[in-house]
Amino acid sequence: MATSKKPSCCIVERKKSNALPTHPLLIRSSVSIQQDSQNPKLFTNRAMAHIRLKSWESCIDDCLRSIELDTTTANMKGYYYLAQAQLALKHPNEALSSALTAYDQCLKTHSSSTRSVSELVLQAKKEKWEAKERERIRRRSPLLRELEDALLLTKHAELRNVDIQYQGRENSTDAREEREELEDTCRRKTEELRSVFALADPINLSPRQEVPDYMIDNISFSIMHDPVITKNGRSYDRSTILEHLKRSPTDPLTREPLTISDLRPNLALKQACAEFLDRNGWAVDY
Questions:
Q1: Nearest 5°: phi and psi at 252?
Q2: CA–CA dist 55, 120 (Å, integer)
Q3: H/E run at residue 235
Q4: Phi and psi dihedrals of 118, rounded to 5?
Q5: How far is CA 91 from CA 17, 84, 214, in A?
Q6: Environment class of residue 100 by beta-carbon count within 10 Å: exposed (0-12), middle (13-18) or buried (19+)?
Q7: 91/137: higher pLDDT
Q8: CB of 268 within 8 A of CB of 204?
Q9: 61-65 own/partner pairs: CB under 8 Å, 24+ apart
């Protein structure tokens, strides 16, 4: 579990701007901040607006300010938004640290956001693995590296075209679906490319292995990152079993009465899942 230490303000090198915000999403929160500049919640509110506008650097600025001002709690929303911005700027290590801090705070406060934050933790772990995997492949196969870089350049150019096409409507359903389709297309092409190269170099570019059944949550059918064990010895990811118990205070398998106090951390399985994800980040999408 991550601690509530303050993140470094030097996560991303950038030049601050003194320009006043002009977008309607930012005007109200900026006016509120001018009236009460010591209220951390106002900065997290504006950080959320920056996320909607994909203004990642400004989002990080507001999150860090909110965390700095909030001396009483770990500021779950501040760290949650911070992790999203860090992921968008391709800083998976920092994002994972922020997401784990937000997850810890969710558990302490029994937050309804636990499932969403848990998914963000897994996404950060996946992107951290992908960054290591790209570097490993870059060292092993210069040609594959060159081809993957070309796919990424094409994807980024097409994503910029989508942003231009839907300027002012960046969060519309059509824009979101087009971006998701481009991301999925690039991911599939990259996987196909690696599969072809793996045939020529199976030792260094080996294909994916299967996720062991005991690491799969039987409610969400995804790999677990924080497993807990029930009275009957069955393990579930903490976030999904908590969601289930909100709907029905029963064991998902036996239907016997089950409460949050009946759950116990499965530390051995948690360690095993963490080690597996560290080597196989693709398993987040399994």
A1: -60, -25
A2: 19
A3: strand 235-237
A4: -60, -40
A5: 22, 10, 30
A6: buried
A7: 91
A8: no
A9: 61/16, 64/7, 64/9, 65/40
Tokens of 16: 């601050």
Query: Is the distance from CB of 78 to CB of 66 less than 8 angstroms?
Result: yes
Cα–Cα distance for residue pair 104/101, rounded to 1 Å:
5
Query: Treating both helix axes as pointing N-terminal to C-terminal, what angle do 238-247 and 114-140 enclose, rounded to 10 degrees?
Result: 150
pTM of the model: 0.66
Query: If you ran DSSP here, which 8-state letter would residue 211 be given?
Result: P
Q: Which run of H or of E encompasses 228?
A: strand 227-229
CB 185 within 8 A of CB 177: no
Q: Select from 195, 184, 192 the least CA-distant residue to 158.
A: 184
Using an 8 Å Cβ cutoff, are 30 and 21 in contact? Answer: yes
Q: What is the dihedral of CA 228, 234, 237, 243, to 10 degrees?
A: -100
Segment (H or E) for 157: helix 142-165
CA atoms of 77 and 40, how far apart (whole Å): 10
Residue 107 identity: L
- Whether 205 shows a pLDDT value over 60: the answer reads no
Q: Give per-residue burial for 202-228: e unless 16+ CB within 10 Å, then b.
A: eeebeeeeebeeebbbeebebbbbbbb
Mean pLDDT of 194-200: 79
Least confident among 20-24, 58-62, 119-123: 20-24
Q: Are 186 and 247 in contact (CB under 8 A)?
A: no
